[in-house]
Amino acid sequence: MCLGIPGKIVNIYEKDGVRFAKVEFGGIKREVCLDLTPEAKEGDYVIVHVGFSIQILDQKEAEETLNTYREFLEKIEKNEVSL
Amino acid sequence: MKYLYEFRESEKVKLIIKSIEKICKSKWTIMEVCGSQTHSILSAGIDELLPSNITLVHGPGCPVCVTPREVIDKAIALSKMKGTIVFTYGDMLRVPGSRESLFRAKADGAKVKMVYSPFEALEFAKANPDKKVVFFGIGFETTAPCNATVILKARGLNLKNFFVLIAQFRVPPALEAILNDPFNKVQGFLAPGHVCTVMGIEEYLPISEKYNVPIVVTGFESFDISQGILILVSMLERKEKGVKIQYKRSCKPEGNLRAKEVINKVFKIGDLKWRGIGVIKNGGWVLKEEFLDMDANNLLKNYSEEIEEKKEGCIAALILQGKKKPFDCLLFGKECTPLNPLGAPMVSSEGACAAYYKYKR
Amino acid sequence: MRKIELAHGAGGILMREFIEKEIKERFKNEELSKLLDSAILENKSKRIAFTTDSYVVSPIFFPGGNIGELAVNGTVNDLVAVGAFPEFISLSLIIEEGFSFEDLEKILDSIKYASEKARVKVVTGDTKVIEKGKGDGIFINTSGIGFIPDDVDFGYHRIEEKDKLIINGPIGLHGFSILVARENINVEGNLKSDTAPLIDLWKALYENGIEVHFMRDPTRGGVQGVLNEIAKESGYDIILFEENLPITDEVRGLSEILGIDPLLMANEGKMIFFVKESDAEKALKILREYELGKESKIIGEVYKKGGSLKLLTSLKVVRILDMPYADPLPRIC
């Protein structure tokens, strides 16, 4: 239901008292409102929906999800999974 | 694109699907709640690769589809009023109301503008104090804090020419409606990753408990979806209930507290009509009293609703609740197409019928 | 600032002056300078290709080009797509009263530049000025004439099983550039329309004896739209390989955030060549020697009798790619 794409914060600025950032998606940059993720900083990846950052992407969890999936598959097949 | 394409790598997806095959012993019916997930599943072809004892049914998670036609009719009426401009998201433009869509109205001279972000409507209102700006804000929990932020900013700027027409839906009551149905077939849910990114899993725990169903909050790429299915099937096989999160890089158990706070400043929970399903108790959010002066309904003084009867034979409600699939409908692809949609799931490209029309005919 | 007046199209002194200075001077050639009611052209082959197209693009100036270049390249490519070598074009301007002279000169300059690049002569034309409020700045119509060599045999009837589909570079550039400019989607990046004449690519394939069975420039409707039409008309299934589709980082980014598939977006400097399987590798090598073809790729093949367009996804699942039903719009869900 909700298109949300991860992008990287390039720089942060203020407009009328609201925090915005230029966020990079592939080869383009676009303005994103940071109001819902006030602790976001430059270099962070954020999940963007309708021009708003709705969450800071947890890079550690992302790597974890990708790196441990083989172990996870083995565990799950042995029926010893604990998440 | 980092954190996107790694989650689409086919080798990994195939390995996960092999594991699903190995652990899946019984027949299971799983619902992916969100239209974007339906879209990903069909466009990558994941449904074709899954073992045949897993049936995926598609949920009601397309806000564009479930926005009632009378709300669209109101948006159209507003766009035709002198001095008023309606701003809305691109996918809302082609959705038909009772007689026409906003796009069609625009062709006749109605003032309709597409926005990517609701801030664009606010900026326009600021720059054009002589025009009445109506932001037609629809969506699920993901969009709610974004729409709410703009409403708060408009209030902060004391704008008198900024109005909102709101159709703001909540997912958990819809899941309960599905589970409460005596003919329900759904045994486990892939919960919508972005809705839960905002809301967290709190509201899903009692649902899992009460109805004894496992729920896995899942992302949107093919890796995420296949992993979500794997976790869910392993829970089903072990008769385990509870809520687990596959989409950990975005969804935290508590959700986004700041976003929830913003939502609660502007909206309160209320009963809401869903197109194709009917009124769902607590099925959405409505404006709180202190924002009612911004309600675009105030501009519709002499407006009377006329709704045409629904076409006989359309099984939209059954499809939205996972009881039937698009191919079960006699009208699918014949009288009912994306060009001439008869039911909610065909009206937007994220709806289950439209997705089947696009990818599977 | 000088502006276009109704008199510039009224047949009097002002119009005469305009034609002399802005048109005749700029596009100087033997056929045009006679300013006859019709241009008289020399026929160079048995078969003539003749095409026409009107350009109403909004905005008139967009990243990577303007309506003038588009009007030349579009018509040139329509001629190329039937195996012709373009030679002559006409130029009809419909200008709204009050249009800036400076902008008009910019457009005429790019028409000159584009026609020189495509080696076509502007041999006849027309100028009309319409009242303010009755147009959208400027509309351009160009018609084109090209000559088809006797040994070229093109058409749906030539398409056969296993033909390879080659495209000369990344898709969706024009469509996304226009969408971003028209809808004021505020993005930064090196996104530009790909408008270009494709005559040299065709010439190279022809002169090297490559067996090309069919060509089509995937403009409106994008790759998905035109290939659907070709599949239906030829009666063959066509399969695209998702992993081989050339897409730039800019287009990928936009396609993700707006939720629009690049396969649906218009191209103005791309050609899809249907090449006989045994010639495909050689064709790729030839195309890649050109600036406009250096990113050429095999994106699909003609499969078997059928009539629909399909996609082999990266998961190696085959699914339908249906006929798009309208211009794609950005979506939130």
Word description of this protein:
The complex is a heterotrimer of chains A (83), B (361) and C (333). Chain A is an alpha+beta fold and 83 residues long. Chain A contains two helices and five strands; from the N terminus they run βββββαα. With 361 residues, chain B is of the alpha/beta class. In chain B, the strands form two sheets. Chain B has a six-stranded mixed β-sheet, with helices on both faces. In chain B, strands 2-1-7-8-9 form a five-stranded parallel β-sheet. The mean pLDDT of chain C is 95. With 333 residues, chain C is of the alpha+beta class. The longest helix of chain C is centred in the N-terminal third of the chain and has 17 residues, at 101-117. In chain C, helix 3 (67-80) packs parallel to helix 4 (101-117). Chain C starts with 12 loop residues before the first helix and ends in a 13-residue tail after the last strand. Chain C has helices at 13-27, 30-33, 67-80, 101-117, 173-182, 199-207, 222-234, 249-258, 280-288, and strands spanning 47-55, 61-62, 65-66, 85-96, 121-130, 138-148, 164-167, 187-189, 212-216, 236-241, 272-275, 297-305, 309-312, 318-320. Chains A and C meet through strand 2 and strand 3 of A and strand 8 and helix 8 of C.
